[in-house]
Amino acid sequence: MEKKIYVESANNLPVYDECDILVVGGGAAGHSAAIAAARAGAKNIVLMERYGYMGGDVTGGYVIMVPDLSWYNMSFVRGLQEEWFTRLEKNAPGSVLAPGLDKLGSEDPALLYRWAAIHDCVSRGTHVEKGPNGEEVRRDTKRLVRAVYFEPNQLKIEMDKMLYEHRDAIRVLYHSWGTKPIMEGNEVKGVIFESKEGRQAIFAKTVIDATGDGDLYSQTGAPYASLADGQTRSSTTAVVWRIGGINWDQYYEWSNAHPAQVQAIKNRMAEIAGFRNVPLPSNDNSICWINNWHAAKDCTKVKDLTDTEINTRISMREVLAYLKEACPLVFRNAFIYDIAPQLGTRCSRRLKGEYIMSANDWAFANQFDDTIAWHSTICQINDCGPVEIPYRAILPQKVENLLAPGRHLSSDDVAIDWLNLIPQCVGTGQAAGVAAAVAVQSGTNVRCVDIKKVQNILIDQDVPLPRNERVDPAYMECVEQHMYGTYTELAKKARAEADGLKSFRQW
Ligand SMILES: Cc1cc2nc3c(=O)[nH]c(=O)nc-3n(C[C@H](O)[C@H](O)[C@H](O)COP(=O)(O)OP(=O)(O)OC[C@H]3O[C@@H](n4cnc5c(N)ncnc54)[C@H](O)[C@@H]3O)c2cc1C
Prior knowledge:
seven-stranded mixed sheet; 14 helices
Protein backbone atom coordinates (compact mmCIF):
# COMPACT_ATOMS: atom_id res chain seq x y z
CA MET A 1 0.00 0.00 0.00
CA GLU A 2 1.28 3.45 -0.88
CA LYS A 3 2.29 5.56 2.13
CA LYS A 4 0.31 8.72 2.82
CA ILE A 5 2.29 11.92 2.27
CA TYR A 6 2.06 15.25 4.05
CA VAL A 7 3.59 18.18 2.15
CA GLU A 8 5.39 20.49 4.57
CA SER A 9 5.24 24.14 3.58
CA ALA A 10 8.49 26.05 2.99
CA ASN A 11 9.48 28.46 5.74
CA ASN A 12 12.29 30.83 6.69
CA LEU A 13 14.81 29.54 9.23
CA PRO A 14 16.92 31.70 11.54
CA VAL A 15 20.68 31.22 11.03
CA TYR A 16 21.94 30.20 14.46
CA ASP A 17 25.66 30.28 13.69
CA GLU A 18 28.33 30.29 10.99
CA CYS A 19 31.58 28.39 11.39
CA ASP A 20 34.55 26.88 9.59
CA ILE A 21 34.00 23.31 10.79
CA LEU A 22 30.69 21.86 11.92
CA VAL A 23 30.89 18.45 13.57
CA VAL A 24 27.52 16.74 13.96
CA GLY A 25 27.54 13.95 16.56
CA GLY A 26 29.69 13.93 19.70
CA GLY A 27 30.57 10.23 19.93
CA ALA A 28 34.07 8.79 19.86
CA ALA A 29 34.50 10.04 16.28
CA GLY A 30 32.87 13.48 16.56
CA HIS A 31 34.46 14.44 19.88
CA SER A 32 37.88 13.44 18.53
CA ALA A 33 37.27 15.38 15.31
CA ALA A 34 36.50 18.62 17.16
CA ILE A 35 39.45 18.30 19.56
CA ALA A 36 41.91 17.37 16.80
CA ALA A 37 40.72 20.24 14.61
CA ALA A 38 41.23 22.72 17.44
CA ARG A 39 44.71 21.36 18.18
CA ALA A 40 45.54 21.61 14.48
CA GLY A 41 44.82 25.34 14.69
CA ALA A 42 41.15 25.67 13.67
CA LYS A 43 39.53 28.50 15.60
CA ASN A 44 35.88 28.42 14.59
CA ILE A 45 34.37 25.00 15.28
CA VAL A 46 30.84 23.99 16.28
CA LEU A 47 30.23 20.54 17.80
CA MET A 48 26.57 19.53 17.83
CA GLU A 49 25.20 16.59 19.84
CA ARG A 50 21.59 15.40 20.20
CA TYR A 51 22.03 14.28 23.83
CA GLY A 52 23.46 16.13 26.85
CA TYR A 53 26.91 14.52 26.99
CA MET A 54 29.76 13.41 24.75
CA GLY A 55 30.78 9.87 23.91
CA GLY A 56 27.77 8.29 22.19
CA ASP A 57 28.02 4.49 22.45
CA VAL A 58 31.10 4.78 24.65
CA THR A 59 29.67 6.78 27.55
CA GLY A 60 25.91 6.69 26.93
CA GLY A 61 25.79 3.14 25.55
CA TYR A 62 28.13 1.81 28.28
CA VAL A 63 30.50 0.21 25.79
CA ILE A 64 33.19 0.25 28.40
CA MET A 65 35.97 -1.73 26.80
CA VAL A 66 38.48 -0.80 24.11
CA PRO A 67 40.32 -3.79 22.60
CA ASP A 68 43.64 -4.43 20.86
CA LEU A 69 45.41 -1.12 21.22
CA SER A 70 48.73 -2.93 20.94
CA TRP A 71 50.39 -5.65 18.89
CA TYR A 72 53.39 -7.50 20.34
CA ASN A 73 55.31 -4.89 22.34
CA MET A 74 54.11 -1.86 20.35
CA SER A 75 51.28 0.48 21.21
CA PHE A 76 49.81 1.06 17.73
CA VAL A 77 46.62 2.91 18.66
CA ARG A 78 47.72 6.13 20.29
CA GLY A 79 46.67 9.75 19.75
CA LEU A 80 43.43 10.83 21.36
CA GLN A 81 42.46 7.23 22.14
CA GLU A 82 45.43 6.72 24.44
CA GLU A 83 44.99 10.26 25.81
CA TRP A 84 41.54 9.33 27.21
CA PHE A 85 43.21 6.77 29.44
CA THR A 86 46.29 8.72 30.49
CA ARG A 87 43.97 11.54 31.52
CA LEU A 88 41.56 9.24 33.36
CA GLU A 89 44.40 7.46 35.16
CA LYS A 90 45.64 10.85 36.39
CA ASN A 91 42.33 12.64 37.06
CA ALA A 92 40.10 9.79 38.20
CA PRO A 93 42.21 7.09 39.86
CA GLY A 94 40.59 3.66 39.69
CA SER A 95 38.49 4.49 36.62
CA VAL A 96 40.73 2.51 34.23
CA LEU A 97 41.77 -1.12 34.23
CA ALA A 98 44.37 -2.24 31.64
CA PRO A 99 47.78 -3.83 31.28
CA GLY A 100 50.33 -1.00 31.47
CA LEU A 101 52.05 0.37 28.37
CA ASP A 102 55.39 -0.85 29.75
CA LYS A 103 54.16 -4.47 29.84
CA LEU A 104 52.91 -4.85 26.26
CA GLY A 105 53.76 -8.13 24.57
CA SER A 106 55.03 -9.63 27.82
CA GLU A 107 55.05 -13.42 27.96
CA ASP A 108 55.63 -13.45 31.72
CA PRO A 109 53.42 -16.31 33.04
CA ALA A 110 52.61 -14.40 36.25
CA LEU A 111 51.35 -11.41 34.27
CA LEU A 112 49.42 -13.59 31.83
CA TYR A 113 47.79 -15.34 34.77
CA ARG A 114 46.95 -11.97 36.38
CA TRP A 115 45.22 -10.66 33.22
CA ALA A 116 43.63 -13.88 31.94
CA ALA A 117 40.35 -13.06 33.70
CA ILE A 118 40.02 -9.80 31.81
CA HIS A 119 38.69 -10.52 28.34
CA ASP A 120 41.06 -9.69 25.45
CA CYS A 121 44.05 -8.71 27.61
CA VAL A 122 45.87 -11.88 26.55
CA SER A 123 46.49 -12.67 22.86
CA ARG A 124 44.87 -15.61 21.15
CA GLY A 125 47.28 -16.04 18.23
CA THR A 126 50.45 -18.01 17.60
CA HIS A 127 53.72 -16.19 18.06
CA VAL A 128 55.42 -15.98 14.64
CA GLU A 129 58.55 -14.14 13.61
CA LYS A 130 61.17 -14.16 10.88
CA GLY A 131 64.14 -16.38 11.65
CA PRO A 132 67.75 -15.45 10.77
CA ASN A 133 67.30 -16.67 7.17
CA GLY A 134 63.86 -15.16 6.67
CA GLU A 135 62.12 -18.43 7.57
CA GLU A 136 58.94 -18.52 9.70
CA VAL A 137 59.62 -19.37 13.32
CA ARG A 138 56.46 -20.36 15.22
CA ARG A 139 56.00 -20.53 18.96
CA ASP A 140 52.77 -21.32 20.72
CA THR A 141 52.90 -18.64 23.39
CA LYS A 142 50.48 -16.00 24.57
CA ARG A 143 51.30 -12.37 25.12
CA LEU A 144 49.87 -9.37 26.95
CA VAL A 145 47.66 -7.00 24.94
CA ARG A 146 46.47 -3.49 25.85
CA ALA A 147 42.69 -3.73 26.15
CA VAL A 148 41.30 -0.97 28.36
CA TYR A 149 38.23 -1.06 30.63
CA PHE A 150 36.95 2.26 31.93
CA GLU A 151 34.19 3.91 33.93
CA PRO A 152 31.84 5.61 31.42
CA ASN A 153 30.65 8.43 33.69
CA GLN A 154 34.23 9.43 34.43
CA LEU A 155 34.90 9.49 30.69
CA LYS A 156 31.86 11.76 30.18
CA ILE A 157 33.43 14.23 32.61
CA GLU A 158 36.84 13.95 30.97
CA MET A 159 35.44 14.50 27.48
CA ASP A 160 33.76 17.73 28.65
CA LYS A 161 37.01 18.83 30.29
CA MET A 162 38.87 18.26 27.02
CA LEU A 163 36.35 20.46 25.20
CA TYR A 164 36.50 23.09 27.92
CA GLU A 165 40.26 23.35 27.40
CA HIS A 166 39.50 24.36 23.80
CA ARG A 167 36.58 26.65 24.57
CA ASP A 168 38.22 29.46 22.59
CA ALA A 169 37.87 27.36 19.43
CA ILE A 170 34.96 24.94 19.95
CA ARG A 171 31.35 25.96 20.62
CA VAL A 172 29.42 22.97 21.95
CA LEU A 173 25.69 22.62 21.27
CA TYR A 174 24.05 19.89 23.33
CA HIS A 175 20.40 18.88 22.86
CA SER A 176 20.58 19.76 19.19
CA TRP A 177 19.64 17.27 16.50
CA GLY A 178 21.15 17.71 13.01
CA THR A 179 18.36 16.88 10.60
CA LYS A 180 19.24 18.00 7.09
CA PRO A 181 22.29 19.09 5.10
CA ILE A 182 22.10 22.48 3.37
CA MET A 183 23.15 21.83 -0.23
CA GLU A 184 24.17 24.02 -3.15
CA GLY A 185 24.50 21.63 -6.05
CA ASN A 186 26.87 18.93 -4.83
CA GLU A 187 28.41 21.14 -2.14
CA VAL A 188 27.45 20.90 1.51
CA LYS A 189 27.07 24.39 2.93
CA GLY A 190 25.79 23.68 6.42
CA VAL A 191 23.16 21.83 8.39
CA ILE A 192 19.60 22.42 9.57
CA PHE A 193 19.07 21.31 13.14
CA GLU A 194 16.18 20.98 15.60
CA SER A 195 16.16 21.86 19.28
CA LYS A 196 13.84 23.27 21.91
CA GLU A 197 14.38 26.58 20.08
CA GLY A 198 12.85 25.11 16.93
CA ARG A 199 14.39 24.56 13.51
CA GLN A 200 17.48 26.61 12.70
CA ALA A 201 20.44 26.62 10.30
CA ILE A 202 24.20 26.64 10.75
CA PHE A 203 26.49 27.43 7.83
CA ALA A 204 29.92 25.79 7.65
CA LYS A 205 32.85 25.50 5.26
CA THR A 206 33.28 21.82 6.15
CA VAL A 207 30.77 19.48 7.73
CA ILE A 208 31.89 16.33 9.54
CA ASP A 209 29.04 13.85 9.73
CA ALA A 210 29.87 11.89 12.89
CA THR A 211 26.31 10.76 13.63
CA GLY A 212 27.32 7.09 13.23
CA ASP A 213 24.27 6.51 11.06
CA GLY A 214 25.09 8.75 8.11
CA ASP A 215 22.11 10.92 9.07
CA LEU A 216 23.52 13.73 6.95
CA TYR A 217 25.49 12.11 4.13
CA SER A 218 22.51 9.92 3.31
CA GLN A 219 20.67 13.09 2.23
CA THR A 220 23.42 14.62 0.12
CA GLY A 221 23.50 12.33 -2.91
CA ALA A 222 26.71 10.65 -1.73
CA PRO A 223 26.50 6.89 -2.39
CA TYR A 224 26.03 4.74 0.71
CA ALA A 225 24.94 1.22 1.67
CA SER A 226 22.55 -0.02 4.28
CA LEU A 227 23.54 -2.90 6.50
CA ALA A 228 22.15 -5.67 4.32
CA ASP A 229 23.80 -8.64 5.99
CA GLY A 230 21.81 -9.60 9.09
CA GLN A 231 24.43 -12.23 10.00
CA THR A 232 27.09 -9.74 11.05
CA ARG A 233 27.80 -8.60 14.58
CA SER A 234 27.41 -5.07 13.32
CA SER A 235 23.75 -5.56 12.46
CA THR A 236 22.85 -6.07 16.10
CA THR A 237 21.56 -3.55 18.61
CA ALA A 238 21.81 -3.60 22.42
CA VAL A 239 20.93 -1.95 25.67
CA VAL A 240 23.88 -2.54 27.97
CA TRP A 241 23.27 -2.85 31.71
CA ARG A 242 25.54 -3.45 34.64
CA ILE A 243 25.31 -5.84 37.56
CA GLY A 244 26.88 -4.88 40.91
CA GLY A 245 27.63 -6.87 44.07
CA ILE A 246 29.73 -9.57 42.40
CA ASN A 247 33.37 -10.67 42.40
CA TRP A 248 34.61 -11.00 38.82
CA ASP A 249 37.88 -12.74 39.69
CA GLN A 250 35.89 -15.35 41.55
CA TYR A 251 33.57 -15.76 38.53
CA TYR A 252 36.61 -16.32 36.32
CA GLU A 253 38.00 -18.99 38.67
CA TRP A 254 34.60 -20.64 38.85
CA SER A 255 34.25 -20.52 35.02
CA ASN A 256 37.59 -22.25 34.56
CA ALA A 257 36.54 -24.98 36.95
CA HIS A 258 33.09 -25.38 35.31
CA PRO A 259 33.46 -24.77 31.53
CA ALA A 260 30.39 -26.84 30.59
CA GLN A 261 28.23 -24.96 33.09
CA VAL A 262 29.40 -21.62 31.75
CA GLN A 263 28.24 -22.52 28.26
CA ALA A 264 24.95 -23.83 29.66
CA ILE A 265 24.46 -20.53 31.52
CA LYS A 266 25.07 -18.50 28.37
CA ASN A 267 22.60 -20.67 26.45
CA ARG A 268 19.96 -20.33 29.15
CA MET A 269 20.49 -16.56 29.39
CA ALA A 270 19.82 -16.35 25.63
CA GLU A 271 16.70 -18.47 26.01
CA ILE A 272 15.37 -16.34 28.85
CA ALA A 273 16.08 -13.04 27.14
CA GLY A 274 15.29 -14.10 23.59
CA PHE A 275 18.64 -12.75 22.37
CA ARG A 276 22.30 -13.43 23.07
CA ASN A 277 23.63 -11.71 26.22
CA VAL A 278 26.78 -12.35 28.25
CA PRO A 279 28.51 -10.91 31.32
CA LEU A 280 31.86 -9.18 30.76
CA PRO A 281 34.36 -7.67 33.19
CA SER A 282 34.58 -3.96 33.95
CA ASN A 283 37.15 -1.64 35.51
CA ASP A 284 35.67 -2.57 38.91
CA ASN A 285 35.92 -6.17 40.19
CA SER A 286 32.51 -5.87 41.86
CA ILE A 287 30.68 -4.88 38.66
CA CYS A 288 30.15 -6.65 35.33
CA TRP A 289 28.37 -5.41 32.22
CA ILE A 290 25.87 -7.41 30.23
CA ASN A 291 26.66 -7.03 26.58
CA ASN A 292 23.83 -8.09 24.28
CA TRP A 293 23.09 -8.65 20.62
CA HIS A 294 19.60 -8.26 19.16
CA ALA A 295 20.07 -9.85 15.75
CA ALA A 296 19.27 -8.23 12.41
CA LYS A 297 18.19 -4.85 13.79
CA ASP A 298 18.61 -1.60 11.92
CA CYS A 299 19.36 1.28 14.26
CA THR A 300 17.85 3.78 11.83
CA LYS A 301 14.43 2.14 12.18
CA VAL A 302 12.29 3.46 15.04
CA LYS A 303 10.54 0.13 15.48
CA ASP A 304 13.82 -1.79 15.82
CA LEU A 305 15.09 0.78 18.33
CA THR A 306 11.90 0.61 20.38
CA ASP A 307 11.84 -3.20 20.40
CA THR A 308 15.47 -3.31 21.53
CA GLU A 309 14.82 -0.93 24.44
CA ILE A 310 11.74 -2.77 25.68
CA ASN A 311 12.91 -6.33 25.07
CA THR A 312 16.21 -5.78 26.87
CA ARG A 313 14.73 -4.08 29.90
CA ILE A 314 11.98 -6.65 30.40
CA SER A 315 14.64 -9.41 30.36
CA MET A 316 16.85 -7.95 33.09
CA ARG A 317 15.20 -9.11 36.30
CA GLU A 318 14.73 -12.64 34.98
CA VAL A 319 18.31 -12.88 33.73
CA LEU A 320 19.63 -11.67 37.08
CA ALA A 321 17.39 -14.08 39.02
CA TYR A 322 18.67 -16.92 36.86
CA LEU A 323 22.33 -15.95 37.44
CA LYS A 324 21.73 -15.96 41.21
CA GLU A 325 20.29 -19.45 40.95
CA ALA A 326 22.86 -20.85 38.48
CA CYS A 327 25.97 -19.42 40.16
CA PRO A 328 25.12 -18.34 43.71
CA LEU A 329 28.79 -18.27 44.71
CA VAL A 330 29.28 -15.14 42.58
CA PHE A 331 25.80 -13.65 42.06
CA ARG A 332 24.17 -14.25 45.47
CA ASN A 333 24.28 -10.54 46.39
CA ALA A 334 24.10 -9.19 42.85
CA PHE A 335 21.79 -6.34 41.87
CA ILE A 336 21.02 -4.21 38.81
CA TYR A 337 23.68 -1.52 39.17
CA ASP A 338 22.47 0.65 36.30
CA ILE A 339 21.11 0.66 32.74
CA ALA A 340 22.78 2.52 29.87
CA PRO A 341 20.92 5.76 29.18
CA GLN A 342 21.35 5.26 25.44
CA LEU A 343 20.69 2.37 23.11
CA GLY A 344 23.79 0.67 21.74
CA THR A 345 24.11 0.98 18.00
CA ARG A 346 26.78 -0.92 16.13
CA CYS A 347 26.11 -0.04 12.51
CA SER A 348 23.40 1.03 10.06
CA ARG A 349 24.22 3.07 6.96
CA ARG A 350 27.73 2.84 5.58
CA LEU A 351 29.38 5.29 3.24
CA LYS A 352 30.42 4.07 -0.21
CA GLY A 353 33.37 6.40 -0.20
CA GLU A 354 36.36 6.88 -2.45
CA TYR A 355 37.77 3.64 -1.01
CA ILE A 356 35.70 0.76 0.41
CA MET A 357 37.55 -1.29 3.02
CA SER A 358 37.25 -5.08 2.94
CA ALA A 359 38.84 -8.19 4.48
CA ASN A 360 41.49 -7.94 1.75
CA ASP A 361 43.03 -4.97 3.55
CA TRP A 362 43.90 -7.29 6.44
CA ALA A 363 44.73 -10.39 4.37
CA PHE A 364 47.10 -8.58 1.98
CA ALA A 365 48.37 -5.92 4.43
CA ASN A 366 47.37 -3.28 1.85
CA GLN A 367 49.42 -0.09 1.91
CA PHE A 368 48.17 3.39 1.01
CA ASP A 369 49.73 6.79 0.41
CA ASP A 370 46.84 8.44 2.26
CA THR A 371 46.90 6.30 5.43
CA ILE A 372 45.40 8.23 8.36
CA ALA A 373 45.32 5.43 10.95
CA TRP A 374 47.48 2.31 11.34
CA HIS A 375 45.61 0.26 13.90
CA SER A 376 45.94 -3.12 15.48
CA THR A 377 42.33 -4.45 15.54
CA ILE A 378 40.28 -7.41 16.76
CA CYS A 379 40.47 -9.03 13.30
CA GLN A 380 41.87 -12.54 13.49
CA ILE A 381 42.61 -12.71 9.76
CA ASN A 382 45.98 -11.04 10.41
CA ASP A 383 46.35 -12.12 14.04
CA CYS A 384 44.95 -8.74 15.21
CA GLY A 385 47.90 -6.99 13.54
CA PRO A 386 47.80 -3.44 12.23
CA VAL A 387 45.71 -2.45 9.22
CA GLU A 388 46.01 0.80 7.27
CA ILE A 389 42.89 2.98 7.00
CA PRO A 390 43.10 5.41 4.08
CA TYR A 391 41.68 8.93 4.12
CA ARG A 392 39.48 7.93 1.17
CA ALA A 393 37.50 5.65 3.53
CA ILE A 394 35.99 8.74 5.17
CA LEU A 395 35.75 10.81 1.98
CA PRO A 396 32.39 10.60 0.17
CA GLN A 397 32.09 10.25 -3.58
CA LYS A 398 30.34 13.00 -5.55
CA VAL A 399 29.81 15.45 -2.68
CA GLU A 400 32.12 18.25 -1.51
CA ASN A 401 32.97 19.73 1.92
CA LEU A 402 31.95 16.58 3.78
CA LEU A 403 33.78 13.89 5.79
CA ALA A 404 32.33 10.79 7.48
CA PRO A 405 34.52 9.27 10.20
CA GLY A 406 33.34 6.74 12.78
CA ARG A 407 31.22 3.62 12.59
CA HIS A 408 29.50 4.64 9.33
CA LEU A 409 32.75 4.97 7.36
CA SER A 410 33.29 3.32 3.97
CA SER A 411 33.54 -0.44 4.42
CA ASP A 412 31.90 -3.59 3.17
CA ASP A 413 29.59 -5.44 5.52
CA VAL A 414 32.31 -7.83 6.73
CA ALA A 415 35.16 -5.39 7.45
CA ILE A 416 32.81 -3.06 9.31
CA ASP A 417 32.85 -5.60 12.17
CA TRP A 418 36.46 -4.54 12.86
CA LEU A 419 36.24 -0.90 11.80
CA ASN A 420 33.29 0.21 13.91
CA LEU A 421 35.21 -0.38 17.12
CA ILE A 422 35.99 2.56 19.39
CA PRO A 423 39.70 2.96 18.46
CA GLN A 424 38.90 3.08 14.76
CA CYS A 425 36.15 5.66 15.40
CA VAL A 426 38.52 7.80 17.48
CA GLY A 427 41.32 7.42 14.91
CA THR A 428 39.24 8.31 11.87
CA GLY A 429 37.57 11.13 13.83
CA GLN A 430 40.94 12.58 14.81
CA ALA A 431 42.08 12.45 11.18
CA ALA A 432 38.85 14.06 9.94
CA GLY A 433 39.33 16.96 12.35
CA VAL A 434 42.92 17.53 11.26
CA ALA A 435 41.98 17.31 7.56
CA ALA A 436 39.15 19.82 8.03
CA ALA A 437 41.49 22.21 9.86
CA VAL A 438 44.16 21.94 7.15
CA ALA A 439 41.54 22.48 4.43
CA VAL A 440 40.20 25.63 6.11
CA GLN A 441 43.69 27.04 6.71
CA SER A 442 44.77 26.36 3.13
CA GLY A 443 41.58 27.81 1.65
CA THR A 444 40.78 24.53 -0.07
CA ASN A 445 38.22 21.77 0.45
CA VAL A 446 38.63 18.40 2.14
CA ARG A 447 38.85 16.53 -1.19
CA CYS A 448 41.90 18.55 -2.30
CA VAL A 449 43.57 18.76 1.09
CA ASP A 450 47.34 18.19 1.29
CA ILE A 451 47.33 14.70 2.78
CA LYS A 452 51.06 14.80 3.62
CA LYS A 453 50.41 17.84 5.79
CA VAL A 454 47.48 16.05 7.45
CA GLN A 455 49.70 13.03 8.15
CA ASN A 456 52.45 15.21 9.62
CA ILE A 457 50.03 16.89 12.01
CA LEU A 458 48.61 13.49 13.00
CA ILE A 459 52.13 12.33 13.83
CA ASP A 460 52.57 15.50 15.91
CA GLN A 461 49.36 14.48 17.66
CA ASP A 462 50.95 11.14 18.68
CA VAL A 463 49.46 9.03 15.86
CA PRO A 464 52.05 6.56 14.50
CA LEU A 465 51.78 6.14 10.71
CA PRO A 466 53.66 3.65 8.52
CA ARG A 467 56.69 4.33 6.29
CA ASN A 468 57.31 7.73 7.79
CA GLU A 469 60.77 8.76 8.97
CA ARG A 470 59.30 10.84 11.80
CA VAL A 471 57.76 7.74 13.37
CA ASP A 472 59.74 5.44 15.69
CA PRO A 473 61.30 2.80 13.36
CA ALA A 474 60.43 0.13 15.94
CA TYR A 475 56.88 0.15 14.52
CA MET A 476 57.98 -0.88 11.01
CA GLU A 477 60.46 -3.36 12.47
CA CYS A 478 57.65 -4.93 14.49
CA VAL A 479 55.30 -5.45 11.51
CA GLU A 480 58.11 -6.72 9.29
CA GLN A 481 59.45 -9.09 11.92
CA HIS A 482 55.96 -10.51 12.45
CA MET A 483 55.07 -10.46 8.74
CA TYR A 484 52.15 -8.05 9.21
CA GLY A 485 50.26 -10.97 10.78
CA THR A 486 49.50 -12.34 7.32
CA TYR A 487 50.93 -15.79 8.10
CA THR A 488 47.67 -17.00 9.65
CA GLU A 489 45.61 -19.74 8.00
CA LEU A 490 42.72 -17.27 7.77
CA ALA A 491 44.87 -14.77 5.88
CA LYS A 492 46.04 -17.48 3.49
CA LYS A 493 42.43 -18.56 2.93
CA ALA A 494 41.36 -14.98 2.34
CA ARG A 495 44.14 -14.43 -0.18
CA ALA A 496 43.16 -17.62 -1.99
CA GLU A 497 39.46 -16.72 -2.15
CA ALA A 498 38.40 -14.37 -4.90
CA ASP A 499 35.81 -12.76 -2.65
CA GLY A 500 38.28 -11.77 0.07
CA LEU A 501 36.82 -14.11 2.69
CA LYS A 502 33.32 -12.74 2.46
CA SER A 503 32.14 -15.82 4.31
CA PHE A 504 34.21 -14.96 7.40
CA ARG A 505 32.13 -14.07 10.45
CA GLN A 506 33.30 -13.20 13.93
CA TRP A 507 31.03 -12.46 16.90
C1 LIG B 1 26.67 -3.03 22.82
C2 LIG B 1 27.88 -2.66 22.04
C3 LIG B 1 29.08 -3.27 22.33
C4 LIG B 1 30.22 -2.88 21.66
N1 LIG B 1 31.40 -3.44 22.04
C5 LIG B 1 32.53 -2.82 21.69
C6 LIG B 1 33.74 -3.12 22.36
O1 LIG B 1 33.79 -3.96 23.26
N2 LIG B 1 34.85 -2.41 22.01
C7 LIG B 1 34.82 -1.47 21.00
O2 LIG B 1 35.86 -0.87 20.72
N3 LIG B 1 33.68 -1.18 20.34
C8 LIG B 1 32.55 -1.81 20.67
N4 LIG B 1 31.37 -1.47 20.08
C9 LIG B 1 31.36 -0.50 18.95
C10 LIG B 1 31.64 0.94 19.36
O3 LIG B 1 31.19 1.19 20.67
C11 LIG B 1 30.93 1.94 18.42
O4 LIG B 1 30.93 1.54 17.09
C12 LIG B 1 31.62 3.31 18.52
O5 LIG B 1 31.64 3.74 19.87
C13 LIG B 1 30.89 4.30 17.63
O6 LIG B 1 31.45 5.60 17.73
P1 LIG B 1 30.91 6.75 16.77
O7 LIG B 1 31.40 8.03 17.31
O8 LIG B 1 31.22 6.42 15.35
O9 LIG B 1 29.32 6.65 16.87
P2 LIG B 1 28.36 6.89 18.13
O10 LIG B 1 28.97 6.44 19.38
O11 LIG B 1 27.05 6.32 17.74
O12 LIG B 1 28.27 8.46 18.20
C14 LIG B 1 27.40 9.20 17.40
C15 LIG B 1 27.02 10.43 18.19
O13 LIG B 1 26.23 11.26 17.38
C16 LIG B 1 25.04 11.62 18.06
N5 LIG B 1 24.06 11.78 17.01
C17 LIG B 1 23.54 10.83 16.22
N6 LIG B 1 22.72 11.36 15.31
C18 LIG B 1 22.74 12.69 15.53
C19 LIG B 1 22.11 13.77 14.89
N7 LIG B 1 21.33 13.59 13.84
N8 LIG B 1 22.35 15.03 15.36
C20 LIG B 1 23.16 15.23 16.44
N9 LIG B 1 23.78 14.22 17.07
C21 LIG B 1 23.58 12.97 16.61
C22 LIG B 1 24.77 10.48 19.00
O14 LIG B 1 23.97 10.88 20.09
C23 LIG B 1 26.18 10.09 19.41
O15 LIG B 1 26.64 10.84 20.50
C24 LIG B 1 30.18 -1.89 20.66
C25 LIG B 1 28.96 -1.29 20.34
C26 LIG B 1 27.82 -1.67 21.03
C27 LIG B 1 26.54 -0.99 20.70
